[in-house]
Write a structure and sequence with these properties.
Elements: H1 37-42, H2 52-84, H3 92-102, H4 117-148, H5 150-163, H6 172-179, H7 182-207, H8 211-219, H9 224-262, H10 267-276, H11 280-307, H12 311-314
Length: 315
């Protein structure tokens, strides 16, 4: 006996309506059933279909456009202020022309008080380097012992809290009285303003070292030197570099004001001397030079800190 098998008409499937061009983009599951195309298409990144050069251009614009707009806003406000003051404050074009003249020969010497802007910047950086180096030699070891021993922490905390808020320029007359010279007095001022960030950040870093590390050191009966070099220093390094960055930024701020008061060679003295000559263009140039040098110092120290910082600390 022959039996006939009747099949009901196949219902239209969503997959049957898919054009052949999209057939390859539809995932087939292990059981043979089709995955709904709309779910698959939602998981595709739309930027993947953009040309490579267009993605690079968009990334470049996203990186460069905000600072360019910020500089354009600064130049625009500067132009408006210059026009509203009757050109008593030079505009951007006049200042740019003067800057080209100043930087055409930045290392000339016509006497002890008439030198190019390059020599003045180098003199200021030399004072900052000396004062900062002395502060690092004193402040970093002091921060280690303050953070390591609770008794020393309680002893030095009141002194630091008392002296840290004092303006660094308030120490300048003491430096002039003790050292009998403008240059060592300026270096002394840099030393005072640089030491506090390094002491505080180093001490905080030592105090935040996990207690498990110290327990292991106690079990292994390590000496204080071994604890400081093999446990504390690697763990404290990110905090220490943050203190160094803050100290250098503060020192560069203070040296300009100190040189205005003490005279001699330096970017602060150069700025004040241009004010005495009523050369407003050079004053504006000096402001930009101070800002650019400070920006470069900050950038270099951030790169240094990133090279020695753990990923979890960065985040």
């Amino acid at each position: 006996m022959v039996s006939a098998v009747f099949h009901t008409p196949r219902e239209p499937s969503a997959a049957s309506d898919i054009p052949p061009a999209f057939a390859k983009s539809i995932a087939i599951s292990a059981g043979g059933s089709l995955v709904k195309p709309e779910k698959h298409l939602k998981s595709i990144d739309a930027t993947a279909f953009l040309p490579h050069w267009r993605r690079q251009l968009e990334a470049l614009l996203a990186w460069a456009l905000p600072p360019v707009l910020g500089l354009a806003l600064l130049v625009g406000l500067w132009s408006v202020i210059s026009s509203s003051t009757g050109q008593s404050i030079p505009g951007p074009l006049e200042t740019w022309g003067q800057a080209l003249e100043v930087f055409s020969d930045p290392f000339y010497r016509n006497g002890p008080n008439d030198q190019g802007v390059g020599w003045n910047v180098l003199a200021s950086l030399q004072r900052v380097g000396l004062g900062f180096g002395l502060a690092a030699l004193v402040g970093i070891p002091l921060g280690f012992v303050i953070g390591r021993f609770a008794f020393l922490s309680r002893m030095f905390n009141p002194l630091i809290s008392l002296l840290r808020p004092v303006s660094p320029l308030a120490w300048l007359p003491i430096g002039l009285l003790v050292f009998k010279g403008a240059n060592p007095a300026a270096i002394w001022t840099i030393f005072i303003c640089s030491i506090w960030p390094m002491v505080i950040n180093t001490a905080v870093g030592v105090q935040r070292v996990p207690q498990d590390y110290m327990n292991v050191a106690r079990v292994l009966n390590l000496s204080e030197w071994k604890i400081a070099t093999t446990i504390l220093f690697p763990a404290v390094l990110p905090y220490l570099l943050t203190g160094v960055r803050l100290a250098v930024g503060t020192a560069w701020l203070v040296i300009v004001a100190a040189e205005m008061l003490t005279g001699g060679v330096g970017i602060g003295f150069w700025l004040w001397d241009e004010w005495n000559n009523l050369n407003v263009k050079n004053i504006i140039i000096a402001i930009f030079v101070i800002g650019i040098v400070g920006l470069l110092l900050e950038w270099a120290l951030i790169k240094l800190a990133s090279a020695f910082t753990f990923e979890e600390v960065k985040s």
